[in-house]
Design goal:
single chain; mainly alpha; 147 residues
Length: 147
Amino acid sequence: MKTRIHAIAGGIGFLMILLFWTSTVFSELFASHETIAAVKGFILKGMFILIPAMAIVGGSGMAMGRKRKDAPARAKKKRMPIIALNGLLILVPAAWFLAGKAAAGEFDSTFYLVQVVELVAGTANLTMMGLNIRDGLKMTGRISRSN
């Protein structure tokens, strides 16, 4: 049961960040400032799903992997603190900052600088989470360890 909860929470977290990232890119490239502001507001609301999902995946992963010493488990254990710190120290504050600036119609150089930082940090988290998903599938035997 823990494995299933872990997988579902991890999938939700990954998909939420992917949704935030793609929504941001598409709105920035193709939409109005009003749409960008709406996307930033929706991202803040989405944090009420993302943050609990990430807490669940982190807690369940720690519980399941506590005694594991194999290479995929070690790799996941190294990446998780980076993912968490990236989210807590960069992505969440950036989301609040950008939503506030967008709501105020302040699309200045500071907004776009923070936006670039957020997109880079989001890409990093998506990459590390994708690697964790791959390693989790290896650990459960759903994909071959040689892949």
